Structures are given as C-alpha cells and as structure tokens.
Amino acid sequence: ARRRAALPAAMDAALSVAAYLGASLAMTTVNKYIVSVLKFPGMNLLLLVECVATAASVAALQPRRCRPWSPDVLRHLPVVTLAKAGNMVFSFLAMEYTSLPVYNVLKRMNVVFSVFADYSLRSTHFSGGVLWSVGLITVGALATGSGDLEFDLFGYLISLPAGLMNASYLVLSARAYDRVKGLSHVEMLFYTAFFNIFVFAPLSCFELAAVARFFGEETLHLAGSVAALVSYVVLGTFLNFATFWCTTANSPVTTGVTGNFKAIFATWIGFAWF
Q: d(Cα 33, Cα 95) in Å, to the nearest integer?
C-alpha cells in the first residue's frame, strides 16, 4: 500500500521534469530566433501578451480559485511576480548579446543562486554531492567565458541578474507554497501572470511605434513572423505552468538542474541554427 501511494507522486515529479525540459528547450530556441533573427522590437509587448493569455486561460478554466486580492496572496505573491518579471526581461537582454551556447552556460548559474537563496529563505540544506555539482557548473561557466571568441561584457554582466532573478522566483514561489494554504501551481501561474500585466502594460506603451514599423516592413515574411510570435506566447504559457509544476513537485534546485540538461540540447541547436 505504501508503494502504491508513493507511485503517483514519483510519476508526477518525473512528468513535471519532462514537461519543463521540453518546454524550456523549445522556448529558448524560439526566444533566440525572435531576438537574433526577427529582431522584434516589442519585448515588453510580447511579454504582456503572454501574461494576458496565461491569466485569461487559467481564469476561464478555474474562475473560483483565482483570488488575486486575497490578503495571503497580496502578502506573498507580488515579490514572486517581480522576480519573474526581472528574469524575463534580463533573459531577453542576455540572449540578445550572447550566442545561444554561451547563454545556456551562463543561465545555468541560476542553480548556484538557487542553492544560496533556498538556504537563506527556506533554510534548506543540501548534500555534498549537490554542492560539488554546483561547483562544477560554476567552473564550467568561467571556462566558457575565458574561451568565448565573441565575448561581450554587457551580455555576461546582464546574465548574472537574469540567473539571480530566475533562482529568486523559483525559491520565492516554493516559499509561497509553504505559506499560502491550498496554493496550487495552476493558481501560482495565474497570479504571476496577472500581476505581471501591471508591470509590462506601461512598459509596452513605449514600444508601440517600433512594433508598428516592424510589421509595416515585414510584408514579405509577415506570416512567418506572426507564427513565430504566436509560438512564443503559447510556449511561454506552457513553460510557466511547467516551471511551477516542476518546482512544487520537486524543488527549486531540481528545476535548475533540469535546466542544465536542457542546455546540452540547446547548445547543439545553437551551433546548428544560430
């Protein structure tokens, strides 16, 4: 009976890792295409559309569980939202100024930040094997920088807050699960998207003119550009769901380590396509 009870939890953890791995890999590739190939000028507008689509989808499916103005939610979720927004913005910038293989290596530094953040905010302790693995990741990132033929200091510097923000929102979301009674990863998905609308809506207003010029000049490849942007919104929505699912079913550090496996595949895609 004990084995049968543990099986669903183990399957849930494994499926969440697989979902996060696949969604993250696809999202990184589409992100790089939009930033480096399309050179789409409306980063904040794109993030706003993603947040609106995510919040609207969850609210339509589970309207009774979406209570953004409840005291517990307002106490613990806005800080998760800000960390998530920072991760999205800094990741876009880092991807613009570094190659895809280098970006993936630098982004893996988020597991280093996750260890420190999880210990500081949730008093989580890690085994020697985990700490040794994190040390190897750090050495790998430093080795990558020393051999990067297209070294861009700004790209490297901006990747550090991207990794820090990524680790912060994973750990802060895990802490929110600890403190908000009955909070699920689907509700977390709604709250972060809903509150981020108030972050990206004013920022996107400054990009409307540039976006209008972009679509005016993209008459020959308009269908392909729109398809790439729609793919970004759909993948972004699913990736947000998979991220919170993986974090709650496992841990913030597990989510970070899963990202390292994604980076292996994304690096080869970067060599081939970008």
A: 10
CA distance 241 to 259: 15
Model-level pTM? 0.68
> In angstroms, how far apart are the furthest CA atoms of the chain?
64
User: Which pLDDT tens digit goes with each residue over 188-234?
Assistant: 888 888 999 999 999 999 999 999 888 887 666 778 888 889 988 88
Can you tell me which residue has the tokens 């190939």? 37
Nearest to 225 by CA among 94, 37, 88, 24: 37
End-to-end CA distance of the chain: 51
Phi-psi group of 180: left, alpha or beta (phi > 0 → left; psi -120 to 50 → alpha; rest → beta)? beta
- Match 């507008």 to its residue by tokens: 45
Integer CA distances (angstroms), 67 to 49, 115, 127, 174, 242, in order: 21, 31, 38, 19, 21
Per the structure block, which two tokens stand in for 150? 């297209």
Place of tokens 């993936």: 104
DSSP character string of 32-98: HIIIIII--S-HHHHHHHHHHHHHHHHHHH-GGG--TTSHHHHHHHHHHHHHHHHHHHHHHHHHHHS
pLDDT value of position 3 = 39
Amino acid (1-letter code) at residue 261: F
Q: What is the pLDDT of residues 65-89, one digit of tens each?
A: 788 888 888 888 888 888 888 888 8
CA 29 to CA 15: how far, in whole Å?
Answer: 22
